[in-house]
Design goal:
With 483 residues, the protein is an alpha/beta fold. The chain has two domains: 268 residues, 3-Layer(aba) Sandwich (Aldehyde Dehydrogenase, Chain A, domain 1); 195 residues, Aldehyde Dehydrogenase, Chain A, domain 2, CATH 3.40.309.10. Helix 1 packs across helix 7 and helix 4 runs parallel beside helix 5. The protein starts with 8 loop residues before the first strand and ends with a strand. 52% of the residues are buried. The site of nicotinamide-adenine-dinucleotide has 31 residues, from helix 7 and helix 8. Nicotinamide-adenine-dinucleotide binds next to helix 7 and helix 8.
Amino acid sequence: MKADKYIQNYIGGKLVPPLSGKYLENIAPATGKVYSFIPDSDDRDVELAIQAAKSAFPTWSKADTRTRFRLLMRIADILEQYLEIFAQAESKDSGKTLKLATEVDIPRAQSNFRFFATSIIHFPSESHYNPGESINYTLRQPLGVVGCISPWNLPLYLLTWKIAPALAAGNCVVAKPSELTPMTAYLLAQACIKAGLPDGVLNIVHGYGSKAGQALVEHPSLKAISFTGGTETGRKIALTAAYQFKKISLEMGGKNPNIIFADCDFASMMATTLRSSFSNNGQICLCGSRIYVERPIYEQFRDEFVKRTQFLKVGDPKSTITDMGAIVSQQQYEKVLSYIKLAQEEGATILTGGQAVQLSGELSGGYYIRPTILEGLDISCRTNQEEIFGPVVTITPFDTEEEVLTYANGTQYGLSTTLWTQNLSRANRMAEQLEAGIVWINCWMERDLRTPFGGVKNSGLGREGGFEVLRFFTEPKNVCIKY
Ligand code: NAD
């Protein structure tokens, strides 16, 4: 298991260079320096991967579920055995803290394999009975070759969240990880070889989204696409897929509200709000970047939140005392800083943060930003409407439930909402009316892998998780028997 300098594609069970022989630079966000190289794959590499997956499909799709179970469990065990190597690679590639990668990202990738290895054994099909006449039963058959496309913010966590159910359901996969964070996908390929996954069952093609990703989406042999990433990329994929009637599942952007009522458990809310605002530098699609606070506790909240945020340490992702590492790329770093500038133009007061952090020594070229809290912005301004995907939150007071519902639902997005209140009736009433795929009450990021996961409006189409995703990755066929 080795994070080599030259990452290779994984096609037909082998680690292979891109056919063009060209590589892209892979930059470590903590230093801003090139540290490895990624295949600049094109449609020819995608073609090879699709052909390998097609050849593997007849055997894999008919394999006993216990065979799939055993292999997926073996991959999970290898991820566990090499946790340190995976976590170090994830931290180096993405700039996230080593602690987060060790405690969250890689353990969750293991859980994804274990969860879907066992889920497929318990995945039921339906039967519809007409007494004295007929019985119908539903076969759930694998689709064929499917594409899994993932983003950079939770690289292995989200890639395996797609790959594991697709494989468990009997499909063969061509995956395209983010070009910004390819290393753990490369290590996963090595883990699959070590686990004895049959050749071609999983293929991983690296490179640009607009080149390798687009070639994958366009390929006529691809039956379905599971995508996580930005809303505009999702729209493009949906347009391409529609022409060929491909099945799609899209997990896209968010601008999630965090609604805090005066009757909340203040200590618990404050500790969780710090996490839901700034974990992974705010680069989690589920982070709550619009914070609405009921007026009676607004000032108390603001003062405590600002004080606690000022204690957060931005620094070397490898250090155990760092709370926030580097932003994933120079482009994302500049985007976040440009939104802070825009917010000021829109009339924001910066309560804390608002600027880049200049570290020294080998970290001097890295992309660091102080966690930023903004106040005084209009609900409809761009800062409150557009996804920043960085360590930036806005805080706004509200007076009534109706008012805050309008605020919460007032964007194009609808991924998740967090709600803090001790009033059970209000919690249930609001959960019904919030336009979101996920509502967390008095918690955040409590993830039970059995639950449906996804967004509404421009945040998503379809659901991942539990049996929902196994339904996505299978085709139902009704068989009717008359007697
Ligand atoms: P992105 O859309 O730029 O890229 C995502 C993936 O799509 C990458 O692998 C990229 O190479 C690929 N891609 C780009 N263009 C493509 C094309 N034309 N055809 C096929 N593939 C293409 O997103 P990103 O910047 O990597 O990730 C950040 C975004 O992801 C944010 O908007 C965030 O909210 C979203 N996200 C959503 C969820 C969720 O569950 N809803 C989870 C994590 C991240």
